[in-house]
Automatic annotation (TrEMBL):
It comes from Anaeroselena agilis. InterPro entries: FldB/FldC_alpha/beta (IPR010327). This is 2-hydroxyacyl-CoA dehydratase. Belongs to the FldB/FldC dehydratase alpha/beta subunit family. It comes from the Bacteria.
Amino acid sequence: MAKIGITTTIPAEIVFAAGHTPVDLNNILISHPEAVRLTEAAEEAGYPRNICGWIKGLYSVVVQGGDIDTVIAVTQGDCSNTHALMETYELAGVRTIPFAYPFDRDYDLLKLQMEKLMASLGTGWDAVNAAKRRLDGVRAKVAEIDRLTWREGTVSGWHNHLYQVSCSDFNGDVDVFEQEADAFLAAAGSAAEYSEDVRLGFIGVPPILTDLYEYVERMGARIVYNEVQRQFAMPFATDDIVEQYRLYTYPYGVFGRIEDIRREIERRNIDGIIHYVQSFCFRQIEDMIFREKLDVPILTVEGDKPGKVDARTRLRLDSFLEMLR
């Protein structure tokens, strides 16, 4: 069993079916006690300062970690800097396997990509479909955590984020992750209801800021919708794994994401949206589209390196919440 690094969500079912352990490098970085040092180490190695902090951190997590010798890198549908990240991995002697989401959601092209990944890892459809059935049961439990967040009001925005974002790799151990989800559900089912006066949605990539959810709730609001994290959790009712990854909105065009966001804004009775953008990321351009197409107030928050929300952003969040009230 090998540890297989992933740069974003890929069909984890294939990695588990091959008997390996997926490791979401983003989750390793953001939970690392020296996350800032890891991003700075990439700059010392030669990465430009004006490159996304996630990319720099992902480089150091693998090169300095030493226990991951293969990385599945998404070359289409995620970050445009991943191509160069792969090349620097290879320069450091790390094996890389490319995976590409077809921009137009073409079923046959996506199926071909999945079959190429299966061939690279040495597995086939029977094992992959069995892994899908196993993960579907766990995904359903995470979907219940999401429902308790927005409908029953007994789950914090942070825990909603945490359980959904962890579905990219199930923390490398499906059985342990499921046990943790079961225990959390048991506690959340009888927990006291939150009494926030502002309900927020969070769209964009998961934040590199470590205390954003905590700060929002301290100010009397709560995030009841995490867009991309929910997509990582894939609460889709389909027995077809190729269709499952076609329904996943994040790697395709922004307008599919907007349809999903609109539905959830209405269903969850959301007052305003925080659009998180990462410094030096091409997805910042999409902010102008969200502002044109979404009918609720939007606050755009930008993050660079791992760390707490800075004073300027706290002030902007305070003003945004006051405006919504």
